[in-house]
Amino acid sequence: MTSFRDIIAYLIKLRTKWVRILVPVLALALYFFILTFNNVHTEIYDIEPLTTSRETIRSPITIENEVETERKTREAVQAVEDRFDISTNIADEQTGYINEIFTAVDKLESESLVEDEDGVVQVPLTNREKVQRLKELLSNSITEKVEDSVFLRLIDVPKEERDKGKEVFISYLQEEFQRGVRTDNINSAIERVQENIRYSNLDQNVIEAIHELTSFAIVENSFYDSDKTAEAKKQAVSNVEPVIINGGEIIVREGETITNEIYEKLQLVGLLNKDRNVFPVIGLGLLILLVSSVIIYEMNRIDNQKRLDKGTIASILLISFIVVSLMKIMSIYTTQGNQFFFIVPVATGVLLVKQLINERLAILLSILFSILGGIIFNGEIPGTLSVEAIVYFFFSQIAAIIFLINVKDRLSIVRSGIGMSIVNILTILLFVFLSFEKYSIVDVLILSGFGVASAFLSAVLTIGLLPFFETGLGILSDIKLLQLSSPNQPLLKKILTEAPGTYHHSIMVANLSETACDAIGANGLLARVAAYYHDIGKTVRPHYFIENQLSIKNPHDVISPEQSAEIIIRHPYDGAELLRKHKMPKEIIDVAMQHHGTTLLKYFYFKEKETNKMVREEDFRYPGPKPQTKEAAVISICDSVEAAVRSLKEPTEQKIEEIVSSIVNDRLMDGQLDECPLTIKEVKIVHQTICEALKGIFHSRIQYPNKEEK
Asked: Fewer Cβ in 10 A, N or C end of the chain?
């Protein structure tokens, strides 16, 4: 049952853990907020209308100028002319009356011609008789409105002139009717026809007759159409584009007079309203809060897997500080006319994080850095994000993570830079092809050069900063581990020359440990390198360890078991002291100290017990500490397994299985794995992996006969 003291201890530990993570991240969040504050906060101006502007003022946001849009809409509606419906029936009717008049005159003329002995003669009729007869032939609509004098003039005109006048008159009538005769323009239509007839080459009597007929012939045939007019106004309104004030648009230039219209624009975009200016800042705070929460979550996840040391926390903070600061510095020189954000070495951060911590965190930070870059390069226009910067930074960083593989030396970073350059150029070409702007070949080459420079600077900065993080903050990278695994390392040479048996044993333990750690997802490379150095303490008294006793007498035969135990138990701590002296990474020092945990030195303990029944077990146990990491736990198992299997004269598969099971169960029962994060499932995987590896090493061989046997 858990005691109250244990609960209190757990709560204190939990509180310490969260303080250890929260405080640094909140400090980083505050730095992010300060750095991006001016990208969302706009300056408020205290100015009055009809004064002179002291500086050029740009709009901080994109917004519709509704007042100006309404004015343009009103003007568009007022510009729409009334729509009229022209009646062709009225036009046909009126031209029909004119035809009827001229036809009736022709008929009257033909009736007055009779044939006698002398030929065709004219029957004499008085003017009254002619008019009377003509009225009988015409419709009432004509006779009621046309004067008799018009008829008389037409009767007196020769037929050829009359026909010519009729043709000209009807053509002018049709032209006016097609144009549309309205109430407000009927007089002008009559005057136009009369004017045209007056200057024609017709007979004077025809001109005078038609002049009088015009008032009768031209009537209203165009009527106001409310539906068409309303539709036209509606169409005009829909064609009006909203008046938009774009973010970054110049509202007033330095030295320009602030008119009422300009003052209204300044008021509209919020440059005169202090209350409105706080909302973008709140939005920025929420964004920084979300970014910080993601970082805290990921750091807590890493801490649950393996304790998050101060060096790792400092690395995350320092890398984030460097990357965001680089973006901010470059944003100062970036304007709408250039695109200097293409040259920012933003991938430096993820290259460092992948090597110093892990790939998952590098991917996560690449997303967060891209979002922050979108704010930093928004041209200090609140409410906007630079989509180009976000996309470019994201693909550049992801390319750096993907191409950084098989890290064997610092040249792998350069190779990653080459892959980065290609992706950067492709991303820049993407923007060029999607843009409506026309880019010259020179512009494309310059922008591509920016992308190459970004990749090159990222690689150079990573190579330059990596030793600082490795040495200054004690972070162990794969490159550092590979350097430490070189046989030319002084300490490895020391083991080889002073304790060759221990060197061979360490190589075997390294092979087993790396295979087992890779199987459970632990750091196999760290396990290999740590295994190389885990028994470095044996070089202090190499001949007291059986693997180094070649053709010499065992010194333990002449000293007491208690002295032997004291010498053997000292080697992990002698090794740790030697490693510290050579400034080796803490992870490797910890493995050297922890690989025996608090195990019992059974051989000398039972040997002492034969003569001293009062012997204390604590005197024959290693002081510890027990393994704290997965890698240390695996190395402790492999160390014992390799020594035990090597002692077998004929190692069969069954014997290997038995001895590995015995050692693993003994470590579990003795509580040696209680303080490391290994799960039971992972212990089983380690057990199985070690057995398979040992079976591969000690496989059956053909025994070749010697001469005597032949």
From this structure: N
Secondary structure letter of residue 448 according to DSSP: H
- Residue with token string 């640094």: 24
CA 296 to chain centre: 21
Tokens standing for residue 206:
């025809």
Segment 79-103 mean pLDDT: 86
Q: Is the peptide bond before 625 cis (omega within 30 degrees of 0)?
A: yes
Distance, C-alpha 446 to centroid of its chain: 23
Contacts of 22 (CB under 8 A, 6+ apart): 296
Distance from C-alpha of 638 to C-alpha of 645, rounded to nearest angstrom: 10
Closest by Cα among 530, 537, 532 to 628: 530
Percent of the chain clearing pLDDT 70 (strictly above): 90
| 3-class state of residue 602 by DSSP | helix
pLDDT per position as a tens digit, 628-679? 999 999 999 999 999 888 888 778 888 889 999 999 999 999 999 998 989 9
Distance CA 634, CA 65 (A): 70
Most confident of 187-196, 253-262, 692-701: 187-196
Q: State the alpha helices, DSSP H only, in 404-523.
A: 411-434, 441-467, 478-484, 490-498, 500-520
**Residue pair 600/608 in contact by the 8 Å Cβ criterion:** no
* Phi, then psi, of 121 in degrees rounded to 5: -125, 160
**How many Å apart are CA 659 and CA 174, to the nearest integer?**
119
Of residues 209 and 567, more confidence is placed in: 567
The C-alpha angle with vertex 86 and arms to 85 and 91, in degrees rounded to 5, equals: 155
Q: What is the pLDDT of residue 274?
A: 62
User: How confident is the model over 219-237, as pLDDT tens digits?
Assistant: 888 888 888 888 888 888 8
As given in the structure block, the two tokens for residue 684 are 């089983």
State the first-to-last Cα distance of the chain, in angstroms, to the nearest integer.
Answer: 71
Q: How many Cβ atoms from other residues are within 10 Å of residue 89's Cβ?
A: 8
Using CA atoms, how far apart are residues 269 and 61, in angstroms rounded to an integer?
A: 6
The set of long-range contacts for 650-656, using a CB threshold of 8 Å and a minimum separation of 24, is 651/694, 651/698, 653/695, 656/691, 656/694, 656/695, 656/698
> What are 521-531's pLDDT values in tens digits?
888 999 999 99
Q: What is the DSSP track for 611-654?
A: H-TT--GGGGB---PPP-SHHHHHHHHHHHHHHHHHT-SS--HH
CA distance 337 to 443: 12
Q: Are 341 and 392 in contact (CB under 8 A)?
A: yes
Could you tell me the two tokens for 388?
Answer: 């180009």
> Contact at 8 Å (CB) between 231 and 244?
no
Alpha carbons 253 and 250: distance in angstroms, whole number: 7
Structure tokens, 78: 């007022």
Integer Cα distance of 640 and 687 in angstroms: 13
Query: Which DSSP letter does residue 42 get?
Result: P
Is the separation of the CB atoms in 246 and 239 below 8 Å? no
Over 112-139, what HEC string results? CEEEECCEEEECCCCHHHHHHHHHHHCC
pLDDT tens sequence across 454-473: 999 999 999 889 888 887 77
- What SS3 state is found at 518? helix
| Structure confidence by residue, pLDDT tens digits, 513-554 | 999 999 998 889 999 999 999 999 999 999 888 888 877 788
What's the Cα-to-Cα distance from 138 to each of 103, 142, 498, 654, rounded to whole Å? 9, 7, 144, 135
Which residue in this structure is represented by tokens 């602030």?
258
